[in-house]
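Dear support,

I submitted the protein below through the web form. The confirmation email said the job was done, but the results page showed an empty box. After a refresh the structure appeared. I'm attaching both so you can tell me whether what I see now is the final result or a partial one.
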Amino acid sequence: MALSPLPPAKEQHISPSGNIGNDIRQAKSISLEGDAMATASKNFGLIGGGRTETTLALGSNTLTINGTSGFWLCNTTIVGDGIIAVNGGTVQCVYSKLGNVIGENCTLNIGVGGTLRIDNDVFLTVKNFYNRGTYY
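What the results page shows now:
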């Protein structure tokens, strides 16, 4: 699934494509072609069938998360030096038995209205981390 660049002052809305938190595949990879905004009221995420490895290709772009949903990263490699900005909702790193969330060159910015949740023994690796929101 590729998120298209945003036209000025316009949002794109992403709908969930199945039950989250089980073995139903959501998306195996997301590749940004420019800055993008994801706004959702229900959970969505990168969860491969059988919780196989997933990829978030940021490039040098910014992915802004808004809304009240959870954006799940399951066994995810984040590619590029872009930014994940969480202004609303939760970024949730899950299922450490099968892999961790790794984005060695990216920046994770949890804004005042955002939340970062790291489940169990998951390791999250990012180059820069800023937190003005909630972490658990």
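Response: this is the final, complete result; the empty box was a page-load delay. The two ends are 29 Å apart (CA to CA).
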